[in-house]
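MODEL INPUT / OUTPUT PAIR
PAIR INDEX: 1
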Amino acid sequence: MGLCKCRVVTSLFCVQHTKNVCEKCMVSDHPTCVVRSYKEWLNDSDYATECTLCGDERNDGRPCIRLGCYDVFHWACLEKYINTQPPTTTPAGFICPCCRVSIDVCRYHCLFGWGTVWRQ
């Protein structure tokens, strides 16, 4: 546990800036950074700064989205990934391509005001 710059106690840690961040600061100040728990970072401090779906840097100016598991992808890459899933997949059936945790797209749209990724 540590203190974010806004004085909120948090267990989240920005790997790129090596500092504690709360969820509010993570969304506003660290939108494309790798964020994990401080304990995870101590165990394995080697995290990639690239979008794991395309291999390009996440801070290349293209819009990014952070999932509930804290993995970050380019918006277009995640949309392409979701569109490759079977047409019968329910929203709760989409999983993160990195950690295999369920992606609840609608919930994050409501929380953060991000556009929703829908299949065409």
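PAIR INDEX: 2
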Amino acid sequence: MVSSGTRITAESLPEQPAGKEVRLIGEVVSFDEKEAVISSGDAKFKVLKPNKDNYANTRYVEIFGKVSDPADTLPSVEEIKSIPVGDKFNISLYQRAIKLSTGKFSHLFEPAKRSETMDVEE
């Protein structure tokens, strides 16, 4: 089973420690059996050991993986799992949502605790 990983933007990948499980979405630039190059906004990153079937017929892909080398010229993630997202995806909107949910307003995106929810009687 794959853990959910932390959703991040490609721009924040160099700040992540090696071994951390992350989730990213980006546009497929190129791929082969050894690696894929993904573009997400203004940043690019490599995916090591990609499942090439998930990259072949889609423009965008979601990657679950472990940060491999965040300090490299092109940061890399070793793929655990990938999911084709399709050809129509608003990467700009996605990045803004991730920045909101992991930044200053992250508390708004946390699940409510049971004590904070209202029980409604029928």
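PAIR 2 NOTE: The chain has two helices and six strands.
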